[in-house]
């Protein structure tokens, strides 16, 4: 379904060559570029912060979709606006004041996303819907690429019903591949993040497999 957007996660890219990796996945058909920021505190892994994300921006021609797996979020919102994030997603579980966080993200000129860990129910996001441009449904516990897909299709369907006719994306993140993608799209997802399933078999010097993998999702 080509109305569904594919957002490759550069968590599975070559960390010594992000600029060329971003150019390669865009040339191979990526709709958005998904950037996983981890702090070694909210999740048990550490990636990169605002200066690196600002450097990625120079290569992103599509949409830079920044997924913050950090706590706290609010002290860093301006830094990610300055880094050029188009969409900035914070976890509902990252702090007690999600309304303030989403308002601050929009106030800084970005689209505001809210991510839900697998253990968080759809209903938890209902009070935030009018402040939200994207809901990221995690289908793994965040922290690492290449984990096993957890079936969240009931949650996706519940979110579609709660959202009604609001213009809110439902993004799926974790374990998306050609087998699991049709399940989440049928349930109502319209943006698919994929790391290992996009980057496997290819490299910056041989990027054609990235395109084959994107089209297979
Ligand atoms: C998980 C990250 C994901 C991850 C997805 O913590 O938020 O974006 O990179 O990787 P795959 O597609 O390999 O599950
Ligand atoms: Zn992510």
From TrEMBL:
Q: Which InterPro entries match?
A: Aldolase_TIM (IPR013785), Ribul_P_3_epim (IPR026019), Ribul_P_3_epim-like (IPR000056), RibuloseP-bd_barrel (IPR011060)
Pathway membership, UniProt: Carbohydrate degradation
* Reactions the enzyme catalyzes: D-ribulose 5-phosphate = D-xylulose 5-phosphate
Species whose genome carries this gene? Salipiger marinus
Which class of enzymes does this protein belong to? Answer: isomerase
Co-factor binding details? Binds 1 divalent metal cation per subunit.
Active site per database record: 36, 173
Gene it is expressed from: rpe
Which HAMAP family does the entry link to?
RPE (MF_02227)
Q: Which GO terms describe its molecular function?
A: D-ribulose-phosphate 3-epimerase activity; metal ion binding
Protein name per the record: Ribulose-phosphate 3-epimerase
EC number per UniProt: 5.1.3.1
Can you tell me which family this protein belongs to? Belongs to the ribulose-phosphate 3-epimerase family.
The record lists a divalent metal cation as bound by: 34, 36, 67, 173
Instruction: Briefly state the protein's biological role.
Output: Catalyzes the reversible epimerization of D-ribulose 5-phosphate to D-xylulose 5-phosphate.
Question: Gene3D superfamilies, from UniProt?
Answer: Aldolase class I
This protein's GO cellular component annotations are: cytoplasm
Alphabetic keyword roster? Carbohydrate metabolism, Cobalt, Isomerase, Manganese, Metal-binding, Zinc
List residues binding substrate: 9, 67, 143-146, 173-175, 195-196
Q: Which GO terms describe its biological process?
A: pentose catabolic process; pentose-phosphate shunt
């Amino acid at each position: 379904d080509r109305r569904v957007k594919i957002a490759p996660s550069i968590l599975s890219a070559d960390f010594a060559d992000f600029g060329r990796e971003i150019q390669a996945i865009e040339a191979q058909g990526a709709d958005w570029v998904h950037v996983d920021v981890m702090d070694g505190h909210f999740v048990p892994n550490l990636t990169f912060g605002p200066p690196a994300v600002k450097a990625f921006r120079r290569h992103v021609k599509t949409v830079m979709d920044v997924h913050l797996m950090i706590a706290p979020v609010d002290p860093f919102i301006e830094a990610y606006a300055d880094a050029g994030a188009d969409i900035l997603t914070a976890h509902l579980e990252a702090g007690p004041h999600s309304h303030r966080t989403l308002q601050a993200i929009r106030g800084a000129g970005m689209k505001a996303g809210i991510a839900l860990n697998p253990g968080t129910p759809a209903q938890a996001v209902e009070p935030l819907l009018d402040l939200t441009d994207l809901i990221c449904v995690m289908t793994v516990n965040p922290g690492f690429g290449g984990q096993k897909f957890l079936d969240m299709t009931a949650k996706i369907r519940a979110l579609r019903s709660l959202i009604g006719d609001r213009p809110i994306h439902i993004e799926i993140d974790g374990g998306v591949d050609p087998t699991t993608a049709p399940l989440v799209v049928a349930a109502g997802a319209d943006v698919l993040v994929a790391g290992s399933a996009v980057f496997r078999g290819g490299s910056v010097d041989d990027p054609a497999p990235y395109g084959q993998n994107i089209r297979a999702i």
